[in-house]
């Protein structure tokens, strides 16, 4: 099982520019988490501080009992071997072929013979769809391929913690869907803790167990996916809706004055655009979950047994310009179930009373009959909670 | 980090500190297993291949200049029989290690710095760190050792070529006597002169390698940043080399008595 990552009071600035302050969260062991945020809010810096590439000004990052932010270099290097990191553009070694790149961690950290190395490398490269591309140099391939090769390299030592920086940027929607599925399948197979840093809303809706969002130098929220997906926080709602009106501006932040102006109703064009989207969105999102919604073990996915229920959860929300809580991706049929799903459900149900009401309703609406029996919840309760 | 702007000059101090800490960790990690033999051989070969020809070409005129200058000076003083001795001393002790160092840091150091700098801005170095591999041990140590080794060997070559150039110009151009030139070799020079020459070359190679690697590792901001890093690397290395040369020469003259005293 993966390792828990605990972040406490993390603060970082470059010169006078504060990136974020007082970020505290826990990436639950073995679960998939997503960190959202508009461009330039320090998502990558956050990821780098988790692996000790960026030393925070204050705060702790605890992994396996080691504080990454302040430990000695030797311990840092040892702890890093538990982690696999995929950088934004792959960060492959330009002088080595893809094969040697992927084999690099094996050759550095294990004493495997060349035959074993070849077997593992070819397996991982096939996993990311790069079988047969081994002899190519990083300069000769597309950005998407570099990214996937970077992922293969991050996976080669079977890490307990996988950190992925913008797996979708520069990839077409189909490949992004495949990468999403790959990450979920990986989690099912090796039960690693996964953190994905992205601003892809589709990925954030369907992949993670937990979602957080960084905005204006703060962690807006971090918690079970239902919390952020049903959040009424203006920045979150704007981001998930992909709209222009709201606190997020073209530059890092809009002037507060602009926000004032919009709130008083001056943004006529913006409103219309918002309505257009409201019409178009649910259909688009409703269609997508088909990818991971296969028969068999896939059906277990708690919230995710069919578009009908997802739509209903969405309908509960006032304003309903988003599709509410879409079903989560499930592992490809034939793979083991994700252990994280049950663990997370236990945790979420235990802390249910602490969550916002909209999130509670979404969670309850998504329970299967088996779940209800397991947690002793009757359908009537669920409906009442949903209506209130 | 906000201290950057608080005290003037603290940035320079910080850079100096990190340069020294890199130097220390290069020394420490030289003895850490696994040793990167393959990388060392590749780097050694690379550094040698970019420095041998320019060094040889520089050392001929340099030896000649010294021979001509010393030759005319000794003639004025009426000490023509010591021409050979003086020029050997100058070439072996001063000119040879400096030429070697300038070419190792100018030709090989700039290449090392550009290579490491490009890897840094492309996040390859970060990726390596994250994979639990120390870039200092994996990349820097072999390069620094390569620079040191090549510097020592080149120093021998420069000494020979420089002395031969001096001989040619003194004997053929200035009409000096071959016998006197050769016989006076050992009049002033003795074995410790050769040793200090090689020790200097070794230290200069180390400095050239470490400075190049340090600037490369701290490159940032894309291709322009790499260019700036290479520029700084060459300038800083040259400044350091001449300063360290002064210190080493002063120490040597103090602790090793001149021949005949």
UniProtKB/TrEMBL annotation, chain A:
Residues 272-287 have a biased composition (Basic and acidic residues). Pfam families: ABC_tran. The keyword Transport applies. The keyword Transport applies. GO terms for molecular function: ATP binding; ATP hydrolysis activity. Residues 265-337 are annotated as: Disordered. It comes from the Bacteria. Residues 289-313 have a biased composition (Gly residues). Residues 5-241 form the ABC transporter domain. Keywords: ATP-binding, Nucleotide-binding, Transport. PANTHER family: INTERMEMBRANE PHOSPHOLIPID TRANSPORT SYSTEM ATP-BINDING PROTEIN MLAF, PROTEIN TRIGALACTOSYLDIACYLGLYCEROL 3, CHLOROPLASTIC. This is ABC transporter ATP-binding protein.
Automatic annotation (TrEMBL), chain B:
GO terms for molecular function: phospholipid transporter activity. The lineage of its organism: Bacteria, Bacillati, Actinomycetota, Actinomycetes, Micromonosporales. GO terms for cellular component: ATP-binding cassette (ABC) transporter complex. Signal peptide: none annotated. The keyword Plastid does not apply. It comes from Rugosimonospora africana. The chain crosses the membrane at residues 12-32, 44-68, 98-118, 139-169, 194-213, 234-255. InterPro entries: Permease_MalE. Keywords: Membrane, Transmembrane, Transmembrane helix. This is ABC transporter permease.
């Amino acid at each position: 099982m993966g390792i828990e990552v605990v972040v406490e009071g993390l603060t970082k600035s470059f010169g006078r520019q504060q990136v974020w302050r007082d970020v505290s969260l826990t990436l639950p062991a073995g679960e998939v988490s997503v960190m959202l945020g508009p461009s330039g809010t320090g998502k990558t810096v956050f990821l780098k501080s988790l692996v000790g590439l960026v030393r925070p000004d204050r705060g702790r990052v605890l992994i396996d009992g080691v504080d990454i932010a302040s430990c000695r270099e030797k311990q840092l290097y040892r702890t890093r071997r538990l982690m696999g990191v995929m950088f934004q553009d792959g960060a492959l070694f330009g002088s080595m072929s893809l094969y040697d790149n992927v084999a690099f961690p094996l050759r550095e950290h294990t004493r495997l013979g060349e035959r074993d190395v070849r077997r593992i490398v070819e397996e991982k490269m096939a996993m990311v769809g790069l079988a047969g591309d081994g002899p190519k140099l990083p300069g000769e391939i597309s950005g998407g391929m570099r990214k996937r090769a970077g992922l293969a390299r991050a996976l080669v030592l079977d890490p307990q913690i996988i950190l992925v920086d913008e797996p979708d940027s520069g990839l077409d929607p189909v490949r992004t869907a495949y990468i999403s599925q790959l990450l979920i399948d990986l989690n099912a197979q090796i039960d690693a803790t996964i953190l994905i840093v992205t601003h892809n809303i589709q990925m954030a809706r369907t992949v993670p167990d937990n979602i957080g969002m960084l905005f204006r130098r703060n962690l807006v929220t971090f918690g079970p996916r239902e919390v952020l997906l049903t959040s009424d926080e203006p920045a979150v709602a704007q981001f998930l809706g992909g709209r222009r009106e709201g606190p997020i501006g073209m530059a890092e932040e809009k002037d507060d004055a602009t926000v004032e102006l919009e709130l008083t109703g001056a943004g006529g064009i913006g409103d219309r655009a918002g309505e257009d989207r409201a019409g178009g969105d649910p259909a688009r999102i409703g269609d997508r979950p088909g990818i991971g919604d296969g028969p068999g073990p896939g059906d277990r996915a708690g919230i995710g047994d069919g578009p009908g229920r997802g739509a209903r959860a969405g309908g509960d929300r006032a304003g309903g310009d988003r599709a509410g809580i879409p079903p989560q991706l499930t592992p490809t049929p034939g793979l083991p179930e994700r252990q994280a799903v049950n663990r997370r459900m236990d945790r979420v149900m235990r802390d249910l009373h602490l969550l916002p009401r909209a999130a509670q309703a979404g969670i309850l609406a998504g329970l299967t009959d088996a779940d209800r029996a397991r947690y002793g919840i009757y359908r009537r309760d669920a409906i009442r909670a949903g209506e209130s | 980090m906000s201290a950057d702007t608080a005290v003037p000059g603290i940035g320079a101090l910080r850079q100096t500190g990190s340069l020294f800490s890199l130097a220390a960790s290069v020394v420490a990690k030289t003895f850490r297993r696994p040793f990167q033999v393959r990388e060392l051989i590749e780097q050694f070969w690379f550094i040698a291949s970019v420095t041998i020809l320019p060094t040889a070409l520089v050392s001929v005129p340099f030896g000649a200049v010294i021979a001509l200058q010393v030759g005319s000076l000794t003639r004025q003083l009426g000490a023509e029989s010591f021409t050979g001795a003086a020029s050997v001393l100058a070439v072996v002790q001063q000119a040879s290690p400096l030429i070697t160092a300038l070419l190792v840091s100018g030709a090989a150091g700039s290449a090392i710095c550009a290579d490491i700098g490009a890897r840094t801005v492309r996040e390859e170095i970060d990726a390596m760190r994250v994979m639990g591999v120390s870039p200092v041990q994996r990349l820097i140590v072999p390069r620094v050792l390569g620079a040191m080794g090549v510097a020592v060997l080149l120093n021998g070559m420069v000494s020979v070529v420089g002395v031969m150039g001096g001989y040619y110009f003194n004997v053929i151009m200035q009409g000096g006597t071959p016998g006197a030139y050769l016989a006076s070799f050992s009049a002033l020079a003795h074995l410790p002169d050769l040793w200090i020459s090689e020790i200097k070359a070794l230290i200069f190679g180390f400095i050239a390698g470490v400075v190049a690697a340090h600037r490369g590792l701290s490159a940032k901001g894309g291709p322009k940043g790499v260019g700036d890093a290479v520029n700084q690397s060459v300038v800083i290395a040259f400044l350091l080399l001449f300063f360290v040369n002064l210190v080493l020469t002063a120490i040597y003259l103090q602790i090793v008595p001149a021949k005949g005293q």
